[in-house]
Amino acid sequence: MNLFDLEGEVAVVIGATGVLGGALAQGLALAGAKVAVLGRNAERGAECVKKIADEGGTAQFFSADAMSSRGLATAHREVEAKFGAPTILVNAAGGNDPKATVTAERPFEQIAPDDWRANFDLNLVGGALLPCQEFGAAMAKRGHGSIINIASVSAHLPLSRVAAYSAAKAAVLNLTQFLAREWAPRGVRVNSITPGFFPAEQNRRLLFNEDGSPTARAQSILTHTPMGRFGEAHELIGAVIFLGCPIASSFVTGIDLRVDGGFLSQTI
User: Fold this and answer.
1) Mind spelling out the 3-state secondary structure of the chain?
2) Neighbours of 251 (CB within 10 A)
3) pLDDT truncated to tens, each residue of the chain (268 aa)?
4) For helices 19-30 and 42-54, what crossing angle results, to 10°?
């Protein structure tokens, strides 16, 4: 028996047009799932689909904005028509917003409520709430499914500067446990993954100077990470396959799986 075989599963990866979401989509496809690549950028979606196809996997891009209930419902219907009913949902949409980030020029007390709401909602409403309402509710009706939300180390320890992002990701953890309890009797498992620091579009300016050297913030992160390095996108694949597989993690729900190089284990 192959504990990590996803043959016959249909995985929806929202935010698969990003670096981390794309790596998760590729990993699920390599494990045998048919993958629906959802996002707003058709060009990057096509690139993700091509990478999966080149490795022998099955995938298709579906245009969707995680902040649009109507768009998610349309994509849901299109995925069902193409691949069948989704059985795995990965919520990888989200990111920081400079307008909601604390800087010397913009202290915390000067963050505009509208900017806060926009970043908070992107990471909670688009990053978990609306997709879970659309795809998760359908899984619960069918009595089978796995939902994997993407949290952050800042959900556990609020990092400096990214206040709205940290608050939203903390809420994602809470919502994950809420839904795990609500939907466990209906055959749906709900878990989260906490990535450590993985350089991607949303944090590259915080981690690297224009010449490619690490910023003071990056140096601080590396010092705080016992493994002494940043993560690589492919290192999240094992976690998402484990949580997505109905055999390997059949009795696992409501957990947060940390892939952080020990960051959250570090003290003084």
Assistant:
1) CCCCCCCCCEEEEECCCCHHHHHHHHHHHHCCCEEEEEECCHHHHHHHHHHHHHCCCEEEEEECCCCCHHHHHHHHHHHHHHHCCCCEEEECCCCCCHHHCCCCCCCHHHCCHHHHHHHHHHHHHHHHHHHHHHHHHHHHHHCCEEEEEECCHHHHCCCCCCHHHHHHHHHHHHHHHHHHHHHHHHCEEEEEEEECCCCCCCCHHHHECCCCCECHHHHHHHHHCCCCCCCCHHHHHHHHHHHHCCCCCCCCCCCEEEECCCHHHCCC
2) 5
3) 689 999 999 999 999 999 999 999 999 999 999 999 999 999 999 999 999 999 999 999 999 999 999 999 999 999 999 999 999 999 999 998 999 999 999 999 999 999 999 999 999 999 999 999 999 999 999 999 999 999 999 999 998 899 999 999 999 999 999 999 999 999 999 999 999 999 876 677 778 888 888 898 899 999 999 999 999 999 999 999 999 999 999 999 999 999 999 999 998 7
4) 30
pLDDT score at 1: 66
The label of the residue with tokens 């284990």 reads 265
Residue that has been written with the tokens 């609500």 in this structure: 182
Catalytic residues: 165
Which 3-state string (H, E, C) describes 73-142?
Answer: HHHHHHHHHHHCCCCEEEECCCCCCHHHCCCCCCCHHHCCHHHHHHHHHHHHHHHHHHHHHHHHHHHHHH
pLDDT at 202: 66
Please state the pTM of the whole predicted model. Answer: 0.95
